[in-house]
Sequence to fold (1070 residues):
Amino acid sequence: MKYDVIVVGGGHAGCEAANAAAKQGVKTLLVTSNMKNIADMPCNPSIGGTAKGIVVREIDALGGLMGRVADKSHLQIKMLNSGKGPAVKSLRAQGDKVIYPKNMLKELNSIESLDIMEAMIEDLIVEDNTIKGVITDEGKEIMCEALVLTTGTYLKSKILVGETHKFEGPHGEVSSKHLSDKLRDLGIEIQRLKTGTPQRIDPDTVDFSVLTPEYGDSTPWTFSFDIEPQYEIDKQRLCYLVYTNEETHKIIRDNLSRSAMYGGYAEGIGPRYCPSIEDKVVRFADKERHQLFLEPESDYYPDLYLQGFSTSMPIDVQEKMVHSLHGLENAKILKYAYAIEYDAINPLQMYPSEESKVIKNLYTAGQINGTSGYEEAAGQGLIAGINAGLRVRGKDPLILKRNESYIGVLLDDLTTKGTKEPYRLLTSRAEYRLILRHDNADLRLRDYGYQVGIISQEQKDRLDLKRKHINDLIENLKNFRVTPKNQSEELVEAIGELNNGESLYDLLKRPEVKINDLVTYLEEEYSKEIQEIVEVQVKYEGYINKTLKEVERMLKLEDKKIPEDIDYDKVNNLASEARQKLKQVRPLTIAQATRISGVNPADISILTVYLKKEYANQD
Amino acid sequence: MNENICAISTALGVGAISIIRATGPDAIEIVNSIFKGKDLTKVDTHTINYGFIMDKEEKVDEVLVSIMRAPRTFTKEDMVEINSHGGISTTNKILELLLENGCRLAEPGEFTKKAFLNGRIDLVEAEGINDLIVSQTDSQRKFAMNRLNGNLSRLIKEMRKEIMELEGKLEVAFDYPDEIEDEEDITYNELKSTMITIKDKLTKLVNSYKDASIIKDGINVSIVGKPNVGKSSILNHLLDQDKAIVTDIAGTTRDIVEGTLSLNGIKLNLTDTAGIRETDDLVESIGVKKSLDIINNSDLVIFVLNNSEVLTKEELDLINKTNVEKIVIINKCDLESKIDYSLLDDIPYIKGNTMDANGLDELKTRIISMFNLEKINSSDFNYISNARELSLVKKALDVVSESIDNLNATLPFEIVADDLRVSYVALGEIIGETYNEDILDEIFSKFCVGK
Fold:
């Protein structure tokens, strides 16, 4: 059996990778250990969230599936940070854990050149440091041109609850015992990471009357740029706010030594970005309470997810902890919290295209690269699938830059800085976040999807029309002048009476003026979406231009390529830490080199001069 | 490579001439913006042009400016050389003006580096460049090390810490919106009060640079008045009484230092105004406008008036238009007064008779309080020591001021956070520290977040 691209793993990364490769028309196989776990959400039920919601839109813009599937499969959706500024706004949905995988499978099944197969992969076929195929646990060989590994937490996974542990994946699934050893034998560095998930609670045993409900937005939203809202606003499910208290904290402190983490039973490194409750209580001892949320997981089963309470305490302590929470005194725990350890690779051995530096035509995406989160996984899966397909088609890879997307920030961080803990995207990681907004993800990225061939002509035409509307609206705002005579009441209320005429465009720059107050002057009507983009672009033009200037400076350095065969030992006078880091990371451009911690501006000068000297003729 | 850089190319000191060099795509335009004379953007390449360096309306120095356009220059980019009159303060002032108007201070060896990178010099010559850059590295490291223990560094670090704490609060609320409880939320007022404190500290630092130059260079005092009002006797009394050495040091071409005396350990450079001493009548001989140009170059002007004569319009005009510190001495008070004191309004004046001891003491007391000399002497030195630091501190001050404006306009927190980040970076540049991942460390050490 032979395929162009094989994707191992059917999680969020695997689904996107399979879609992105197959949609290019290359013959693709998705191998999953269990068909039922396609696009499984083993941890929290949310899709999106700060920064992550923007990633979902980026995935959609590029031709991925997550946004579209989430839009058809959620229980609640809201825009976070709506009052804090244009770029930190982000959508978050509570996905239905039963419906989401179903809808994802439906999407995958509709792709012609994609096959799906149930098997456990335990070995790789590699010749001349190039991937040739995979071998299942039953010894069956399947050959391929390019391979995408998206094994998630399934490499040597170990579930930890208190003093006990089991070698298995989430839901008691079988995990891969040999694949990470095989990778290590091939020269890939393996590290051990850890993450955790909280308890699931029986809603019939919760006293909701003492909890604060959290509602979805009353404005309809979609992640996808291609579909209309698929849900009814007032049928959204509620989440509930729960607080820990001094008693909870005391139980945790008294039993710390029995926690897998604190008792010394775990070796993996957990994420700062997603700490366990014992971590929070220890590190923030003076905090009187911590916020938790009870969130529905599905319309098809009762479990409520107790967000924020992840722990590796033994189950008797978990019982006490849960029952100490106000409103959950009599709560029945349907599933206990656990920590999970797994093997991941060192992402510094990967190119920003997600191809391995060690094995040609081998791509990795998702948790195997040391990230955490469905969205981070999906974003990487998409890029890995795109690039595996492009490789088979003999084309150059798609590498997204930091000024283009959060996915670009993620991949640059991973391949430049590496990670020692599960990596999560944050808006504060993006230095150009003002131009990486949720509202312009399609404007930023859709053309790439079109070039790769996974965005259709129809989608591309719609994008061009959108661009035209945006330009029209801006032109119209510039051309219409408001005078003291024609000033509307709303506008008088907002800014007082005008003394002189002023264009709508200039008025919009004032902080107190909303585009809503202005479009009434225009004959043409514009969608809410167009209005939002234009409002941000005009109102924050000065700041956006400042950002663009910074970007320009960075891109100039991005154009300065570092030859792949450079021998850093021959570059005299580099500081030794810089030399070591450069050898490890092997940055592709001077810009990337500047982002490596431990490489100072002086080292960059030395490197630049060296390149000029040694490679002068190749310039 | 597209940056405009500048540096003083001659050794600092009281040489006859100093050369300040600027190069880069906008070098000519930048120099032109502080130059009075021909339009330098229009003159032929490789020409020398006569004119003045201006600080807004004020003449800083009479100069010759060489214009050399790319590519026939040392760096292969546009290059300007300003030949100014020597003297630390004038040369530094011109450098400051260039920094304020868009140049960056060149790193050691950077002109040569540009020359190499632009292909002006060959590989053999370039071998030397690495050494230059290495020495730059070392000096940077030493520089940073030295200042790590310094007061300036400590002050800047405190400010950065405060900003980082604020930014951490903002960022954590962006990334974990529903895990931050209300009481942890930050308010515009809290942000504003911190930023205003920081602005005040930076303003103080900038002012302290002036103090530092007073300590280093002294206070330049001009004594101005009509003939026979008693200028010379006041000058001599001041010098005699302090047994100061009367010297005739040629300072710059403009000024003649008549003598120096020490007041609370600070030098007072007493000067009459150059070239007009012979006429002995500043006001009448060269007119109010030109007199102003000259006396505004002083730190302090002492106007001497004759009590027995009516205050002339020219005198009053000159006093009112002087925009540096000023003191009026009304001499010959033993004679009948013809001066209308109400005309002097709130200008401080001292009455005396050819400067008796009391009058002199009063004058000194005035000068001491005017320049805060007691404080200068006793305060510890957080002082900025060079034009580079001054330009970076001023830049940080601008950014911080802008962020306060934006806070007043209640722009969204995201924009405020950007301002804070820029302020943080600007302050970091002063002490040679950059941004990196400080914010992430801040967030996760201070806030309890994460699912």
Remarks:
- The mean pLDDT of chain B is 74.
- Residues 123 and 431 of chain B are 34 Å apart (CA to CA).
- Chain B has 14 helices and 13 strands.
- Chain B touches chain A through 40 residues (CB under 8 Å).
